[in-house]
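Here is one such protein, fold included:

. . .
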Amino acid sequence: MSAKPKIVVTGGNGQLGKELQEISSSYPQFEFYFLTREDMPIDQFELVRNYFSALKPAYCINCAAYTAVDKAESEKNLAFLINGEAVGVLAAICKEYDTKFIHISTDYVFNGEATYPYTENFPTDPINVYGASKLEGERNAIQFNPDSIVIRTSWVYSSYGKNFVKTMMRLMNEKDEIKVINDQVGSPTYAADLAEVILQIIPDWKPGIYNFSNEGIITWYEFAVAIKEIINCPCDIKPIITAEYPTPARRPGYSVLDKTKIQETFDVQLKNWTERLTICIEKIKQQQ
């Protein structure tokens, strides 16, 4: 009997890594290896090469990333090492060992000045260090391994890790009033749905850049109001503009991604953000 194809998941302790772990048992045709930064730091290139040489995986899903958007402004070299250079090395090693490479990217590769959803071929123009480092990672992946798949996503949340949904739930329980930005527009992505899509498209490999998020276009304020309604919290939420909440890193004002390509290429069915948020919050409550 032939061995099962092996899937290596980097960033195994992150939101997406954890969601992939949770559904991995539903894909018994694969053998999964979930690697944390302690297991295999992707910026330790010799370790990565040795790991691939020994394991020879069929697929690598790169969920490892430097994600501290504001901190990246003062840790530019580290952000570019992990999100840029390391991605290129990982992609090259995948090519060397005939491993199919999937890399997760972000809406932050765009400047946020559009007025209609971004297609995959819209000109990139990041406005912060994090976005620039992620764009370099995309370019390196495709340059060093043209057979790569890059998935751009936006506003990711999960019952795992740190994210907007969990932060809002905590603040609403602690405070009588909170202020949330109402002039940044985007589409939330439940990491569990992204995990499902990744494993759905693997057998039907078609390289390239793809956008993915849940359906629906909202502001952060509207996102917060929806969370408040689901948890039935009396906290008062006040809308504010970006200028009232300065941060070290600029944020794109418009982050909506056009998902037509991934839908048509892989027959992906998109789910509405509101129903998925309800499911995630129920899960968070169960974990508390």
In short: The longest helix spans residues 76-96. The first strand starts at residue 6 and ends at 10.
